[in-house]
Automatic annotation (TrEMBL):
GO cellular component: cytoplasm
Pathway note: Isoprenoid biosynthesis
Cofactor: Mg(2+)
Organism taxonomic ancestry: Eukaryota, Viridiplantae, Chlorophyta, core chlorophytes, Chlorophyceae
Protein name, UniProt field: Geranylgeranyl diphosphate synthase
Family matches, as PROSITE patterns: POLYPRENYL_SYNTHASE_1, POLYPRENYL_SYNTHASE_2
One Pfam short name: polyprenyl_synt
GO molecular function, one term: metal ion binding
Recorded family membership: Belongs to the FPP/GGPP synthase family.
Length: 356
């Protein structure tokens, strides 16, 4: 199945809106420990748990252990993030930034960035500032997405959202601060990478997070609420709102690692496919999992009458679309050293079969 993207026509006449409360009060963290699905990754079997990436268990093929890999990468990234954004004055601002930035999560975007860098022969230290920047931008998007004027959510990663703790004003500003600091951090902290490549990393992230990426997808998503939209518009939303930052994570890692143009484009195709699959799976999980399992409010899209893949295609067809996207992504890794490609193969499968 080849996914064809057509850009939607301009949607005019959408006034500012505030979504009604669709959240469910739930202070529980996701239940952990139950293994729910096993699947092959070439010669690797990955078991995805109902909580976080730390519960993904892998039967190693050769010396590669996906569970150990993700735990190790999460520790590296968390340490780097903690050092990059220390607590300082103004206290409330930095507390708010760190509250969301260091709240855990799967760290998929940094892991993709570091894996792409290593795939092309680079050292993780070259891509770590970019990896941290991806998580800063992603965290900003979560803080802002949870606001009452956006998705109006009370819980994220199993605990109260930023604005519920610090207020809307501080939440907006802490998101702004994380977004702008992401670019400063790349420019200031990247070592051993040529200036032209650092500049290109900054450009890639800027495009992914702005009016040609995440923001564009969010705007069309807002304007499409309570409307009947087709697959072309839905693909536009998902590719821009979700896939763009996943694509930037992989591409920026490859650039920092010294990849040539042919390799960069292959990895761009890989990441575009897993990015779209990520959101298709998100749509599926929104209607199949509980708030406790997701660590955020379930059934939000249904409550606000948002168009999703299950709504347009049904659950089974949506699963087929996600499976095909993951397959086509992994095909882009053919020809690379199998050991170096193993993390990206496993990450693609993890995205395709995750349960939260």
């Amino acid at each position: 199945m080849q996914m064809q993207l057509q850009l939607p026509a301009h949607q005019a006449g959408c006034s500012a809106r505030r979504r009604g409360h669709v959240t469910r009060s739930c202070g529980l963290r996701p239940k952990q420990g139950q293994l729910v699905k096993a699947f092959p990754i070439r010669r690797v079997v990955v078991r995805v748990a109902t909580a976080t990436a730390e519960q993904v268990e892998v039967k190693p093929a050769g010396s590669f252990d996906f569970n150990l890999y993700m735990v190790d990468r999460a520790k590296m990234v968390n340490k780097a993030l903690d050092e990059a954004v220390p607590q300082k004055y103004p206290d409330t601002l930095y507390e708010s930034m760190r509250y969301s930035l260091l709240a855990g999560g799967k760290r998929v975007r940094p892991a993709l960035c570091l894996a792409a860098c290593e795939l092309v022969g680079g050292d993780v230290t070259a891509a770590m500032p970019a990896a941290c920047a991806m998580e800063m931008v992603h965290t900003m998007s979560l803080i802002h997405d949870d606001l009452p004027s956006m998705d109006n959510d009370d819980f994220r990663r199993g605990r109260p959202t930023n604005h519920k703790v610090y207020g809307e004003d501080i939440a907006i500003l802490s998101g702004d601060a994380l977004l702008t600091f992401a670019f400063e951090h790349i420019a200031r902290a990247t070592k051993g990478v040529s200036a032209d490549r650092v500049l290109r990393v900054i450009m890639e992230l800027g495009r992914a997070s702005g009016a040609e990426g995440l923001v564009a997808g969010q705007v069309v998503d807002i304007q499409s609420e309570d409307k009947s939209v087709g697959l072309d518009v839905l693909q536009y939303i998902h590719i821009h709102k979700t896939a763009a930052l996943l694509e930037a994570s992989v591409v920026c890692g490859a650039i920092a690692g010294g990849a040539d143009e042919v390799t960069i484009e292959k990895l761009r195709k890989y990441s575009r496919n897993i990015g779209l699959a990520f959101q298709v799976i998100d749509d599926i999980l929104d209607v199949t999992q509980t708030t406790e399992q997701l660590g955020k409010t379930a059934a939000k899209d249904l409550a606000v009458n948002k168009t999703t893949y299950p709504k347009l295609l049904g659950l089974e067809k949506s699963k087929e679309v996600a499976d095909q996207l993951i397959l086509e992504a992994i095909q882009q890794l053919d020809g690379f050293d199998a050991a170096k490609a193993a993390p990206l193969v496993a990450l693609a499968k993890y995205i395709g079969y995750r349960q939260n």
